[in-house]
Amino acid sequence: QVQLVESGGGLVQAGGSLRLSCAASGRTFGSYAMGWFRQAPGKEREFVAAISRSGSSIYYAESVKDRFTISRDNAKNTVYLQMNSLKPEDTAVYYCNSNVVLRANSLSPDGSWGQGTQVTVSS
């Protein structure tokens, strides 16, 4: 099993930026596509971004396209999410997942979760 720890969240004003990190430990890091999901209070956890094992294929939710950038460094066992032009509606707990798969035309988590990191965007 892969263990994941997210960090980098915090409080930022609308229009600001944050970079989230997901540090992984375990033998299987780099073997699967990974991704970020988020969950706001009272809402379902939703897909944000995913990146293939090699980093050659990248996917974003429409709501974050052109504002967020996902990347990975397999040598450092880390996945990143650069978030720019943040909006209050981006406020959520952000989680990474160690295996994201395509199911029924949707990208779904199929691996381990981290503990999450809180992102709060004030207006």
Characterize this entry briefly.
This protein is an all-beta fold and 123 residues long.
Set down the secondary structure blueprint:
Elements: E1 3-7, E2 10-13, E3 18-25, E4 34-39, E5 46-51, E6 58-60, E7 68-73, E8 78-83, E9 92-97, E10 100-103, E11 106-109, E12 117-122
Share of helix among residues?
under 10%
Strand count: 12
Biggest sheet: strand arrangement: 2-12-9-4-5-6
Low-confidence stretches: none
Mean pLDDT: 94
Q: Structural class from helices and strands?
A: mainly beta
- Count of runs of 4 or more consecutive helical residues: 0
**Measured distance between first and last alpha carbons:** 39 Å
- β content, as a range? over 45%
- Radius of gyration equals 13 Å
The largest sheet, given as strand count, sense and whether it forms a barrel, is: 6 strands, mixed
Sum up the overall morphology in one term: globular
Describe the structure.
With 123 residues, this protein is mainly beta. The chain has strands at residues 3-7, 10-13, 18-25, 34-39, 46-51, 58-60, 68-73, 78-83, 92-97, 100-103, 106-109, 117-122. The strands form three sheets. It has a six-stranded mixed sheet, with no helix packed on it. Strand 10 (100-103) and strand 11 (106-109) form a beta hairpin. It is globular.
